[in-house]
Specification:
Blueprint lengths: L10 E7 L5 E6 L5 E5 L2 E8 L7 H4 L10 H22 L9 H7 L2
Length: 109
């Protein structure tokens, strides 16, 4: 077996679910910038967007989890594009109708 294959910096780390505030204390090698004190002991804190306590597969709930606001951003862009299109149509003035195909052919002769 190879030596020094596995990391040696395992330590207790707290993972916090941002959806419902659930915290898990486990061992990990992940680097963390924040820390939290639990029962008088300070642990590194890693914040995650979703965990087994908030994921619809594990909770049985079907809901949209949109932490980053991607759906709202998409809807806002779509609404802004529609408003811009309406403004361009209004600024263009009256709409010109095309001549029917048979009139266009007789007008050229």
């Amino acid at each position: 077996m190879k030596k020094d294959l596995h990391p040696t910096n395992y330590r207790p780390v707290v993972f916090e679910d941002l959806n419902n505030g659930t915290r898990y204390l486990t061992r990990s090698t992940v680097d963390a910038e924040e820390s939290v004190t639990i029962d008088g002991v300070e642990y590194p804190l890693v914040k995650v967007h979703i965990s087994s306590s908030s994921h619809p597969f594990f909770t049985g709930e079907e809901r949209i989890v949109d932490i980053e606001g991607r759906v709202d951003k998409f809807k806002a862009r779509r609404e802004a594009a529609q408003k811009a299109l309406d403004a361009r149509k209004k600024a263009a003035g009256k709409v010109r109708a095309r001549k029917p195909a048979d009139e266009a052919a007789t007008a050229d002769k």
